[in-house]
Every structure is written in C-alpha cells, then in structure tokens.
Design goal:
Strand content of chain B: 5-15%
Structural class of chain A: mainly alpha
CATH architecture of chain B: Orthogonal Bundle
Largest interface: A-B, 24 and 18 residues
Shape of chain B: elongated
Oligomer: heterodimer
Shape of chain A: elongated
Radius of gyration of chain A: 24 Å
Number of domains of chain A: 2
CATH class of chain B: Mainly Alpha
Number of helices of chain B: 4
Largest sheet of chain B: 3 strands, antiparallel
Radius of gyration of chain B: 16 Å
Distance between the termini of chain B: 27 Å
Strand content of chain A: under 5%
Largest sheet of chain A: none
C-alpha cells in the first residue's frame, strides 16, 4: 500500500457510508491528492516531500473523515423514500397500462405498441440513473419493470 | 488569527458559491481550492480537505449540482456548478454579510466607503 493509499484509508476509517457513496467520496479525495502530489513534484519536490506537502495541505484525515461522514449522514433519507416509491409507482402505472378497462390483460403486441408503455420503461431506467447515479439500482428497477410486465401479460389472473 | 480563522470558516460556503457564480463554469475540488487561495492572496489558509464536506453539504442542499466526468478505470473527476437555488442563497448570504459588516463597523466606530 502506498503512502497515498494509507492516507485515503485513514480518511475512510472515519466514515461509515454506503459502498457507492464511500467509493465516490474517496475517488474524489484520491484525485485531489494525486493532483496535489503531481504539482508538488512539478515544483521540484521529490516523491516523499511532495506527498508530505500534499498531506499537510489536505488537513487532518480524522477531522476530514468525520466531517464527510456528517455531511452525508441522512443523505439517503429523501433518496431512499423516492427510491422505494419509484418501483411502486412504476408497478401501478404498469398495471394500469397492462389491463384493459374490462379487466382483461393486453397481449404483448398491444402493450408494446403503446407509447406510454415505452415512456414508463424509459423512466424506470433513466430516473434511477440520472437522479441517483446508481447503475445497480437502475438495473434492479429495470429488471423489476420487465419482470412485472412479463407477469402482468402472461399471468393475467394475478390482477390486483 | 483566531478571529480570522473563525471568519474563514463562517464564510467558506459563500466564497465557494461566489467563485462558482463568478466564473460560471463547472469546477472540481482541487481547482476550487486553488482559485480560492489565489483570490485570498494568502490572507486565508485553507485546509484543502475540508472543502469536500462543504461541497457535499451544498450539493445536498441543492445549491450545487455535481457531475462526474471520466470513466471507471480512468481518472474520474467530480465537477460542481452553482444552481439557481445556489445563486439565490448567495444573494441572501451577501446581503446578510453586508448588513453584518455595516453594523459591526458602526459599533466599532470604523468608517467605511459606503
């Protein structure tokens, strides 16, 4: 482990965030430190001096880690509500799209020919990607969307 | 020195918002701190790492919008821009600062240009 890795690890030790947020925060910090070290080298310092200067200017890792943790605590509350609500709302809209007023389920040709269906499909994919920037969540939502679609079309008796 | 440090801490957010509004382009953390230090002409000493909690908090508040550039495996860099909400916040902070400075100056008997 390089000294820069060690510094980033000490900051990480102060945080307890979800994996993606922590990865993003540490990526940003690493990028900062790498640029600071590169600039110090360009100014004539050797590798060790450059790292020392970058670490010194960056500040105490314990304090920074604590403040980052504080800045992100509660970050997920509003997002979590929206993230949980999105599949539910999507499923309700999908149900509305997949069933005719008389209660019979539309077949694949009719369903796939409805522009609204594709709009909902796009929303189910793009909102998680653009709003949450979590591709795994977007993928999960997308899989759920198509799973429900298959269920609604192939098993109309599941109407609820 | 302690007063200066307290003032810097209390005004870091507004200085970041002002910088992003002034330059009106996406900036990343290292770039922001370098520009702030250049503008302060050495008067304020910033601990560079402490800018990130501020940036993330303001992003959370909706005053800044952030976007990653670059891909996994290559250099990924997070760029910040000020939002309309951030600009309104900046206006309020500047008005608050002007009122604060005016009243402190008045109480200290310090004359100002305005």
């Amino acid at each position: 482990m390089s000294e820069l890795d060690d510094l980033v690890a000490r900051i990480q030790a102060q945080m307890d965030l979800d994996a993606q947020t922590e990865y993003d925060v540490l990526s940003e910090i690493r990028d900062h430190l790498e640029e600071a070290v590169a600039q110090a080298r360009a100014a004539g310092l050797d590798d060790g001096e450059a790292l020392l200067q970058a670490a010194s200017r960056f500040g105490l890792e314990e304090e920074i880690g604590r403040q980052l943790q504080a800045a992100h605590q509660g970050w997920g509350t509003a997002d979590a509500v929206m993230a949980a609500a999105l599949p539910v709302v999507g499923a309700l809209i999908l149900r509305w799209l997949a069933f005719a007023p008389n209660g019979t389920a539309l077949g694949w040709p009719q369903l796939l020919s409805r522009p609204a269906f594709w709009i909902v499909a796009l929303v189910a994919l793009l909102v998680p990607l653009l709003k949450f920037e979590r591709w795994r969540y977007a993928l999960a939502t997308w899989v759920l969307f198509w799973g429900l679609t298959v269920l609604f079309v192939t098993l109309p008796a599941l109407r609820w | 020195m302690a007063l200066r440090e307290q003032m810097r801490k209390g005004t870091t957010n507004v200085m970041i918002l002002n910088l992003l509004a002034d330059l009106d382009r996406p900036m990343y953390g290292y770039e922001i701190i370098q520009e702030l230090e250049a503008r302060s002409q050495g008067y304020f000493q910033f601990k560079e790492g402490l800018i990130y909690p501020r940036l993330h908090e303001m992003e959370r508040q909706g005053w800044l919008q952030a976007a990653w550039q670059g891909t996994e495996g290559s250099r990924r860099r997070k760029f910040y821009t000020i939002t309309a909400s951030g600009r309104r916040r900046l206006d309020r902070e500047i008005q608050g600062w002007q009122a604060f400075a005016k009243n402190v100056n008045r109480m200290l008997g310090v004359e100002t240009a305005s």
